[in-house]
């Protein structure tokens, strides 16, 4: 006697899926997920894996940056390749010998230093950097120019972790460093860009010394809002001479309902 496959049963909360990309209320077929949900999960997992292993096209990024009038320093971490980078996070936190020499040579020619250094790094999703770094940088540049901050050459770094930005900032004698880096891919966000800001960068800074703005992408935090929050943090950091957990994001944001500024942190009233 043949056995009929179980019929997919719709979850009664399925209407909530319109409000979030999270995998909720998927339904079931017997004791398993429906076929569509299972295939969708496998596809998202493949996208996340591809994002981790994708190489950053530094040639294309450098060409676009130079076309927009930026000086560019192409650098590499001490992790020689992607496999080493994934297995040795410590090597991704410091520059290779060749890159260290390149940064030091530039710093010697500009002994006065800079107000700001911007580092663009592949991190765990080169896809995020390829898609979002330049549009976000354009928004940031507009405010940098208004505030009159001097900008170091844009540093493009391959096989980099977040902490490497502090070494670059310290060697360039920058008062502040901003790192744009690909975040660890999720099953609904393989192209999420993260932004890390440090005042007075130097080797040995911890996560507590940095401010993070995450999930910058078309389906997440917009370029304009991310740039707005960053500039607020930078201005406050210059005024208070600090960054990290003691520097809160209290930037005014626009209410979708009223279009008027409201406090960004509801806990502060």
CATH topology: Rossmann fold
Would you identify the CATH architecture?
3-Layer(aba) Sandwich
Q: What is the end-to-end distance?
A: 68 Å
Percentage of residues in strands: 15-25%
Question: How much is the radius of gyration in Å?
Answer: 22 Å
Reading side by side through the largest sheet, how are the strands ordered?
A: 1-3-2-4-5-6
Domains, number:
1
* Helix/strand order, N-terminal first: HHEHHEHEHEEEHEE
Q: Which terms would index this structure?
A:
alpha/beta, 7 helices, two-stranded antiparallel ribbon, six-stranded mixed beta sheet, single chain, Rossmann fold, 269 residues
Structure description:
36% of the residues lie in helices and 17% in strands. A six-stranded mixed beta sheet has the order 1-3-2-4-5-6, sandwiched between helices. It has a two-stranded antiparallel ribbon with strand order 7-8. It is built from seven helices and eight strands. It has a single domain, classed as Ethanolamine ammonia-lyase light chain (EutC) (Rossmann fold), CATH 3.40.50. The protein is globular, with a radius of gyration of 22 Å. The chain is of the alpha/beta class and 269 residues long. α5 (126-147) crosses α7 (223-240). β7 and β8 form a beta hairpin.
Short précis:
This protein has helices spanning 35-53, 58-67, 82-87, 97-109, 126-147, 164-171, 223-240, and strands at residues 72-76, 114-121, 154-158, 174-182, 193-199, 210-216, 252-254, 261-263.
Summarize the topology:
Blueprint: H1 35-53, H2 58-67, E1 72-76, H3 82-87, H4 97-109, E2 114-121, H5 126-147, E3 154-158, H6 164-171, E4 174-182, E5 193-199, E6 210-216, H7 223-240, E7 252-254, E8 261-263
Parallel strand pairs: 1-3, 2-3, 2-4
Antiparallel strand pairs: 4-5, 5-6, 7-8
């Amino acid at each position: 006697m043949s056995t009929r496959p179980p019929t997919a049963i719709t979850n009664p909360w399925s209407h909530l899926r319109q409000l979030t990309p999270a995998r909720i209320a998927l339904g079931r077929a017997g004791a398993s997920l429906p076929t569509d949900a299972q295939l969708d999960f496998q596809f998202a997992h493949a996208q996340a894996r591809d994002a981790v292993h994708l190489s950053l096209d530094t040639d294309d990024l450098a060409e676009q940056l130079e076309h927009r009038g930026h000086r560019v320093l192409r650098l590499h971490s001490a992790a020689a390749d992607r496999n080493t980078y994934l297995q040795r996070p410590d090597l991704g936190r410091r520059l290779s010998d060749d890159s260290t020499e390149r940064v030091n040579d530039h710093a010697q020619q500009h002994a006065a230093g800079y107000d700001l250094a911007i580092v663009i790094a592949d991190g765990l999703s080169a896809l995020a950097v390829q898609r979002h770094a330049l549009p976000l940088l354009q928004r940031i540049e507009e405010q940098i120019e208004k505030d009159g901050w001097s900008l170091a050459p844009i540093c493009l770094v391959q096989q980099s972790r977040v902490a490497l930005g502090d070494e670059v900032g310290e060697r360039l004698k920058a008062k502040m460093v901003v790192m744009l880096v690909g975040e660890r891919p999720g099953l609904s966000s393989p192209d999420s860009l993260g932004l890390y800001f440090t005042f007075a960068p130097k080797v040995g800074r911890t996560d507590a010394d940095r401010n993070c703005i995450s999930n910058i992408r078309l389906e997440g935090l917009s370029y304009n809002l991310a740039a707005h929050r960053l500039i607020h943090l930078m201005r406050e950091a210059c005024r208070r001479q600090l960054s990290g957990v003691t520097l809160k994001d209290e930037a005014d944001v626009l209410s979708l309902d009223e279009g008027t500024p409201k406090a960004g942190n509801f806990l502060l009233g």
